[in-house]
Amino acid sequence: MEEYRVLLVDDEEETREGIRHKINWAELGFELAGSAADGIDALELAQRLRPDVVLTDIKMPRMDGLELCRRLKPLLPETKTVVLSGFDEFECARQAVGLGVFEYLLKPISALEFCGALERLREQLDRERQERRELESLRRRYEESLPLLRELFYTRLLDGRIPPEQVADQAARYEIELAQGCWTAALVLADAQEGTGGTGRDELQMLAVQSFFQRRFSLEGCALRAVPYNDMVALLVQMKDEGQIDALTEELERLCALAVPLLGMTLFVGVGRPRPGPELLHESMEGAAAAADYRVLMGAEQVLYIGDLKPGRSACLTLEEADQRALSAAVKLGSREQVAQFIHQQMDRVREARPSLAQGHMFFLEILTALTRMARAGEADMEEIFGSGFTGMVSITDFRSLDELEEWLLGCTLRLWEQLNRQRSDSTWKTVERAKSFIAQHYADKELSVETLCAHLHLSPAYFSTLFKRETQKSFIAYVTDLRMEQAARMLQDTDEKTYLIAERTGYADPNYFSYVFKRHFGISPSKFRAGQQP
Predict the structure, then answer these.
(1) What is the 3-state secondary structure (H, E, C) of 368-389?
(2) What confidence category does residue 413 fall into, taking pLDDT thresholds of 50, 70 and 90?
(3) Are 485 and 517 spatial neighbours (Cβ–Cβ below 8 Å)?
(4) 197-201 long-range Cβ contacts below 8 angstroms, 24+ apart
(5) 501/508 Cα distance (integer angstroms)
(6) 457 in Cβ contact with 436 (< 8 Å)
(7) Distance of CA 169 to the CA centre of its chain
(8) For the segment 182-228, what is each residue's pLDDT rounded down to a tens digit?
(9) Vertex 139, ends 137 and 140: CA angle to 5°?
(10) Quick one: CA dihedral 333, 339, 342, 343, positive or negative?
């Protein structure tokens, strides 16, 4: 470990030499770096050597030890001082304590006492050195973390998670200048999305977009700061006043056009309303995010200011019953061309109507709901059609444009068409579907049996039973029982009919047997089921 540097000050050369030679400095962790005969020489030497410790006598010519300590304190505040005195005077001790002297030693002092004082001094110096190292380590870690802390600050600021009265203090803490005045937030979306409706933005692309706006933005009277924000890029713009908003959108349009050849990206920017102060930037960002959500409906427009959106301007747009029948006919009976034509016609309706975001989303959900109903009715593989992990939670704002939305819808519809086509070509599937249809129409018939069904289908009971069990994973009796129980449960919940009437309407002549089957199926009696009790 590095030794501590000591400066020895005493007007008696004999004393200086005695101390120099009687103490094993290195063993105690010290190095005697220099010596002086009075305070004036010591003061000059101390400023040059910058020792860790000054050992000084009190009574010396020209400048005594206490005066030396007094002058050293502002010049070398980290240096420790030890005072040696042959005078047992209270006033000297009091002054030494007042000057922050580490220790006050009375002459004559033995080598053992002197070494003990040096050991105590070294322990103190070791502690302070360790504290400085820890503080330096913390400072370095803080400086290394500062970019991340600033990014987190901007995210919390734009999300409105910093109390307004704390914004200025937190900005100063992270060495961020946020002057008062008119501020606007904008949100930049790039064409780096992947897959069907996913975001998939590449981090390097977002950094390129951030740098692009930071370097190329040029609008007199405006200052722009581009920052990462939720895997996107946010623009914080300080303007002279709200009247510059049109000039700002024009500059952003220029940059979006420039990004195509320079970055190879198509950008869309949503711009929020100007707000009077950086602490209100989250309000502007809400508008910017809302404007950005409209990108799917805006065609070729690349910059949209939230103030330009006019509520109530869209025509009525809905998937009528005739449209649903046309979709069903195209998917179940039509060709690939007819499927593509239907989807294209619906998207053209959106382009012409220019609906509000909410209405456009509802129209999209109507089409998606119609497709999912057909898929479920046809027992199609939902994930194969709509993508892995599909839950139905798809939003129009997941897409960059109507063209991308149309492409996704068409892909889903064609995959459904292909599955249903395969099923239609499967005679086994047709037979089972006919059987299900017959059962659905006659489940209330007490005389329904596999024999009556097979007479209708013109199949032998043995062959049909094998076929039906293989395709449905249920026997004929189990399938009929499940259907009857489902209908019974629905009637118990939705009607006030007596249990014996429900038993008759679901194919059971004996109400007691119906109750037995119902309890075995649901684990609870019909009356308790109707009362809402749990099994």
Answers:
(1) HHHHHHHHHHCCCCHHHHHCCC
(2) very high
(3) yes
(4) 197/394, 197/395, 197/398, 197/399, 197/408, 198/398, 199/231, 199/398, 201/231, 201/232
(5) 9
(6) no
(7) 24
(8) 999 999 988 744 433 434 457 788 889 999 999 999 999 899 999 99
(9) 65
(10) positive
Residue 320's contacts (CB-CB under 8 Å, 6 or more residues apart) are: none
Rounded Cα gap, residues 39 and 11, in angstroms = 9
- Please report the pLDDT score of residue 297 as a whole number: 80
418: exposed, middle or buried (Cβ count in 10 Å: 0-12, 13-18, 19+): middle
Q: What amino acid occupies position 10?
A: D
Cα separations in angstroms, 370 against 148, 329, 366, 498: 46, 12, 6, 36
How sure is the predictor about 498, in pLDDT bands with cuts at 50, 70 and 90? very high
pLDDT at 355 over 70: yes
Residue with tokens 């305070």: 39
Q: Cβ(9)–Cβ(35) under 8 Å?
A: yes
Token output for 378: 């046809």
Pairing mode of beta strands 53-57, 4-9: parallel
CA of 373: how far to CAs of 214, 334, 365, 379, 532, in Å? 49, 18, 12, 10, 29
